[in-house]
């Protein structure tokens, strides 16, 4: 290409030299052809520049399409990561808050377990609870076998009635706790002492009444045993059909019936049943009211709080694992977003390319206008040069001796 261009330039130079030589021989003004040559060079340069700018425009348009496509892909990826990052951050905040709450509750439970104490041993509380259950069971048995039978209740009705009476201990337990035990735990012993004194007097009175009734029952039982032995002796020592024996046995039978009636109508027996029922109900409530808080304290310290601490430990551990996973995903999303932004920064921005394309298109328009002007100047100069040459040749005259008179544009004859 360089050799061909050199040859072409050499040919053009030779043509221009020949043309100039001819113009010189004809004594033509050189400005027209000089103007033509100048316009021709500018015209050729404008063609070359225009082709270069068009090639550059085509390249930029192709690059713009690729950049727009590439930019759209990376923008979409960046937007996806931008959308995921706040979601992952919110999820991480929730997990972090859950883990913190679990840790705080775990420490609070440990502190609560440390402060959950009772001055009384666990066995004391357990014994009180068992004693309360025994009182309730005793009241249930008495109500079932005696009171329910006296009212004529049987089966389910008897058990329901007995259970209701035995449940009085459970009904009285909150009253005891609120009225007596609560003040005792606060260090106010006056009400507790009065209650204990009344309960002790009531218990001793009940035991005394029971003792008297038991003595009467014991006395009646011994007398009945004596009468039974005497009847057995009489039956073994005489004939069964003897009127005297029958009369004595009938007398012994009436004595036994009388003893049973005396025992049945004994006022100590009636009072013993009444006072025993009241004592069992109150004692059951007191034992449960004293023993239940003790057992509950140790149950809470040994069972409930450790179970809850274990739950919080597992929750905190599980949440920490989930948090680590989410934080890893969050870091990946941020890294991918940074990569997308770096790719967008590395590639040519469509806005810049569009600005360059706009500039080149303006240059192409200017070059096209300049090319038109150069073409006009080139054509006009070429026309003027030809016009002057034609005028000169028209005035040329043939002399007889073979000489030619050449008249220049000023009308002066040039001999050749």
Automatic annotation (TrEMBL):
Region described as Disordered: 1-23
TM region positions: 122-142, 148-172, 193-213, 268-291
Keyword DNA repair annotated: no
Annotated Polar residues bias: 1-17
Record keywords: Coiled coil, Membrane, Transmembrane, Transmembrane helix
Chain coiled-coil ranges: 43-119, 309-343
Protein name per its UniProtKB record: Uncharacterized protein
Natural source organism: Xanthocytophaga agilis
């Amino acid at each position: 290409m360089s050799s061909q261009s050199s040859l072409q330039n050499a040919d053009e130079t030779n043509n221009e030299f020949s043309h100039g030589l001819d113009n010189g021989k004809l004594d033509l003004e050189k400005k027209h052809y000089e103007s033509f040559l100048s316009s021709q060079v500018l015209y050729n340069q404008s063609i070359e520049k225009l082709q270069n700018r068009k090639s550059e425009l085509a390249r930029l348009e192709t690059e713009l399409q690729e950049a727009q496509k590439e930019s759209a892909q990376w923008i979409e990826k960046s937007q996806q990561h931008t959308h995921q990052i706040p979601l992952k951050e919110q999820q991480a905040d929730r997990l972090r808050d859950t883990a913190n709450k679990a840790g705080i509750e775990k420490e609070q439970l440990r502190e609560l377990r440390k402060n959950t104490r009772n001055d009384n041993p666990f066995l004391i509380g357990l014994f009180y609870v068992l004693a309360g259950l025994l009182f309730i069971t005793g009241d249930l048995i008495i109500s079932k076998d005696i009171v329910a039978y006296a009212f004529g209740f049987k089966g389910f009705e008897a058990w329901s009635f007995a259970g209701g009476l035995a449940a009085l201990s459970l009904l009285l337990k909150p009253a005891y706790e609120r009225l007596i035990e609560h003040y005792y735990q606060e260090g106010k012993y006056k009400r507790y002492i009065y209650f204990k004194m009344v309960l002790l007097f009531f218990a001793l009175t009940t035991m005394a009444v029971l003792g008297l009734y038991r003595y009467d029952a014991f006395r009646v039982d011994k007398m009945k045993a004596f009468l039974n032995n005497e009847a057995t002796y009489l039956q073994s020592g005489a004939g069964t059909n003897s009127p005297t024996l029958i009369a004595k046995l009938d007398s012994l039978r009436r004595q036994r019936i009388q003893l049973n009636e005396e025992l049945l109508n004994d006022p100590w027996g009636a009072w013993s049943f009444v006072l025993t029922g009241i004592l069992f109900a109150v004692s059951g409530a007191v034992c449960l009211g004293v023993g239940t808080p003790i057992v509950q304290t140790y149950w809470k310290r040994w069972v409930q709080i450790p179970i809850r601490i274990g739950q919080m430990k597992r929750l905190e551990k599980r949440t920490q694992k989930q948090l680590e996973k989410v934080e890893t995903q969050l870091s990946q999303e941020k890294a991918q977003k940074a990569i997308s932004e770096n790719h967008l920064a590395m590639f040519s921005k469509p806005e810049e390319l569009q600005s360059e394309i706009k500039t080149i298109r303006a240059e192409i328009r200017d070059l096209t206008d300049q090319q038109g002007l150069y073409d006009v100047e080139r054509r006009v100069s070429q026309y003027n040069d030809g016009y002057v040459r034609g005028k000169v040749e028209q005035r040329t005259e043939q002399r007889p001796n073979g000489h030619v008179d050449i008249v220049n544009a000023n009308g002066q004859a040039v001999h050749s």
